[in-house]
Amino acid sequence: MRRPGPDYPGPVPNSEQNPGATPAPGDDTVDPRHHRRPLSYVRRTARLTAGQQKAWDTRRQRYLVDVPHEHRELSVHPDWRFDAAAEFGRSAPLVLEIGTGQGECIVHAAATHPERDHLAVEVYRPGVAQTIVRAGHAGAEPSVAGGNPGHELDNLRIMQVDAAELLGHGLPEASLDELWVFFPDPWPKTRHHKRRLVTPAFAELAARAIRPGGRWRLATDWAEYGEVMLAVADAAEGFRNAHGPGGRAPRFEGRVMTSFERKGLDAGRSVTDLEYVRL
Ligand SMILES: C[S@@+](CC[C@H](N)C(=O)[O-])C[C@H]1O[C@@H](n2cnc3c(N)ncnc32)[C@H](O)[C@@H]1O
C-alpha cells in the first residue's frame, strides 16, 4: 500500500519515522463492513523501541482501554459503549484527541488539567506505546502544573481504534466536552482525498459525540486541507464557527508544539486553527 505520497514533503507518516514499519497484509483502503468508507490510515505493523516495548509490557493495562472489535482489528464492536465514569471513577469533563501521534498534546493536557479526563485515540501502535512512555514522564515531573510526582496520570486513557467508529457508536451521544483533530494526515494526492478524516460524514459523527456547548478544535499545516476543513465544518449542521463564518481561530493555547507541526513550520508552511461550538 502506498504511503500518503512523495508529493507531501512535510510531516511524514509514523512509518517513515520508524523504518521498521511495514504495511500489514490485506486491503487497507476500505472498511470491509462499510464498503464505501475509505480508511483514513494505512494499516501497518512496526517494531517498538526498547523503551516503548517496556512501557507496552509493563504499563499498558493502566492506560489502554480494552475495546472489543467486530470485523477487523481496529474496529469498535457495535454493542460496546465507553463508560467514562466507570473508567475514570468519577464524572468530569471529557476531552478526546484523534490521531494523537506520539502523545505530546494529550499528555500535556492531562498533566496540566487534572480536573478533566482525557482520551487519546491512535491507530498506530508505536504512537500508543510512546504516549504511555510520555505519560509516565509527565506524571513524574514535579514542574508540570498538576503533575503527580512519582505517579502516573490518572486522567488519561488510550484507545487503539479507528476514531470514526468510536465517534459513530463507541461513545455515548453528547459525551465529549471537546474533540481535537490536530494535523490529521493530509492525503495530498487528489486520488487519496477520499481518505481524509475530515469530511461531511465525519462532521456528523463529531456532532453526535460532542455535547451542546462543547468544542470541536482542528488544526492543519496543509493549506488546501485547511480550506476543506473550514468549508466542511462551517456547513455542518449542529456547529457554529466560534470566530464567525469563514473565520480562523487563533492558535489554541492548549495545543503544544509537536514534531509534526515543527516539521511543517520548518518547511515554511503555516498552520490553520479552527474552533467550532456544538449547538
Ligand atoms: C499526521 S499525524 C499527526 C499526529 C499528531 N496529531 C501530531 O500533531 O503530532 C496523524 C495521526 O493520525 C492517526 N490516524 C489516522 N487516522 C486515524 C483514525 N481513523 N483513528 C485514529 N487515529 C488515526 C495516524 O496514525 C497518525 O498518527
Quick synopsis:
This protein is of the alpha/beta class. The protein has helices spanning 14-17, 50-63, 84-88, 104-112, 125-139, 163-170, 200-209, 223-235, 259-266, and strands at residues 22-23, 44-45, 94-98, 117-121, 156-159, 176-182, 210-220, 239-241, 272-278. It has one domain (50-278): Vaccinia Virus protein VP39 (Rossmann fold, 3-Layer(aba) Sandwich), CATH 3.40.50.150.
Provide a descriptive summary of the structure in words.
It catalyses: guanosine(46) in tRNA + S-adenosyl-L-methionine = N(7)-methylguanosine(46) in tRNA + S-adenosyl-L-homocysteine. Substrate binds at residues 189, 221, 258-261. It is an enzyme of class 2 (transferase). With 279 residues, the protein is of the alpha/beta class. It has helices at 14-17, 50-63, 84-88, 104-112, 125-139, 163-170, 200-209, 223-235, 259-266, and strands spanning 22-23, 44-45, 94-98, 117-121, 156-159, 176-182, 210-220, 239-241, 272-278. The protein has one domain (50-278): Vaccinia Virus protein VP39 (Rossmann fold, 3-Layer(aba) Sandwich), CATH 3.40.50. It is built from 9 helices and 9 strands. The strands form 2 sheets. A 7-stranded mixed sheet has the order 5-4-3-6-7-9-8, sandwiched between helices. The chain has a two-stranded antiparallel sheet with strand order 1-2. The N and C termini lie far apart (40 Å). Residues 1-27 have low confidence and may be disordered. S-adenosylmethionine is lined by residues 11, 14, 40-41, 98-101, 121-124, 127, 162-164, 182-185, 197, 258, 260-261. The site of S-adenosylmethionine has 24 residues, from helix 6 and helix 9.
